[in-house]
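Page 47, continued from p. 46.
Same chain as before, 590 aa.
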Amino acid sequence: MITGRAFPSRAVSAGRVISSYQSVSALFFVIAAPDGKPPCTSPGAALDRRKLMAVVSKKIPAPDKVKVKTALLSVFDKTGIVELARALSEQGVRLLSTGGTHKAIAAAGLAVTDVSEVTEFPEIMDGRVKTLHPKVHGGLLAIRDDAEHQAAMKAHRIEGIDLAVINLYPFEDVRKAGGDYPTTVENIDIGGPAMIRASAKNHAYVTTLTDPADYAELLAQLSADAGQTTYDFRKRMAAKAFARTAAYDAMISNWFAEALDIATPRHRVIGGVLREEMRYGENPHQKAAFYLTGENRPGVSTATLIQGKQLSYNNINDTDAAYELVAEFLPENGPACAIIKHANPCGVATGPRLVEAYKRALACDSTSAFGGIIALNSLLDAETAEEIVKLFTEVIIAPDVTEEAKAIIARKPNLRLLSVGALPDPRAAGLTAKTVSGGLLVQNRDNALVEDMELKVVTKRAPTAQELEDMKFAFRVAKHVKSNAVVYAKDGQTAGIGAGQMSRVDSARIAAIKAEEAAKAMGLAEPLTRGSAVASEAFLPFADGLLSAIAAGATAVIQPGGSMRDQEVIDAANEHNVAMVFTGVRHFRH
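Result:
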């Protein structure tokens, strides 16, 4: 998880990071205000250091082993809960529980005490209030070796709770399902996070479990050590518990920001659940992991790995780029294929059949496509699979795969095959984030589509119908190419792609060279750039980039416009009878 406080731009530039730390599945940072004070100005918010020292000065050592005598079980996800309760009962552990969890355990014939019997207060307000009581939280928070705490427990008849097994209302699932506002709010858990935080804070004495996957390790410890847990285990589970509640609150916070249409909330929190640890990161000396944010967007994070090795860090990054690109081509308009290397397209094409779309995309730059990622916008069939396995490929990602295609891909056991079930909606809103030293850049996803733009013809000659289609195709691809980006396209196929150059004219030249090389490989008399449309993802600052494209054979140009020298570029286009349109929308990509 990454969390920060937003400031006006002047404060951010003058601010500094005052604290940061990592936990089991989280990263936190806090930015200080320019004067060096913590970023909080509410009355009474300043930390009283004397009080802090009074709290920590007791220095009561945590015991290594703690006997589990009483357990509180309160879960929404009841996976394995009855089996856990039975095993605890066999160890002589007294079971406390609530609501549906109590019913499930009791129905299994196990002795279990309802929390209301402990609190001597009934569950009220449709279950909103049931565990928010001193007899519950006192039992979780009491320092067992503190005489004052022991006296308070005795005076108020509070029983110590040694194990808390808690998981939360399914806020994530309700949000993903598009629940209405009242339903979503009702699924914000209050008592669960409170108990998790209380027990995790007191991990010196209390074990906190928030994940059914940890039940087996708990039972193994209890069986091996006379019903006791170790301090190391309790500490690890506490770290996991705090990460869980932090991620839960992050999702609620972000949902409120979306519901209220707040683009820049004062606190922006991004949380994730560990999907898997990578063998390494972008490079072998870097550690890495893949986290899921809970965003309900089809793609590599939601895909099923049908076959192949674990995806690497670079595989995931490239596959995401490939699938987002190919999703710009709606299946109802025909099959499309994108081939990606290092998050940049080598070739993109459409075709009457998927196999033809693949062949045309491959022809754009068959050399660079070696070891690439192939993304398809429609069902992967056997005919296309037969063509794909002829070339070394890292990953194939598609909405679905036929059984025949699966059998063909299986000939290449290391080839990773992903089935997603759907394409991401290129118009859907969302956020992207990029870390910088001491901060986080967050922005809306670039969901602008050329189909929705008001294209303005700025030259004497208007584009033909075919040129206009090629323009749109090229601009659609240019959106997904690292800046500076220049893309030539003709008849639903990229002819040359120039990516990531510091000079736009160099991108135009590189794209033309790629087109010439592809023409030679295909045995063509001239490159596909002859009679093509060319797209620039940002404005052409000088006429030189345009002239380079014209020299390569382009007859139509699409670009955002907006340069101080727009007229110079327009004049050059008119001089060469080239059609040019402005989109008014830029697609920088870094």
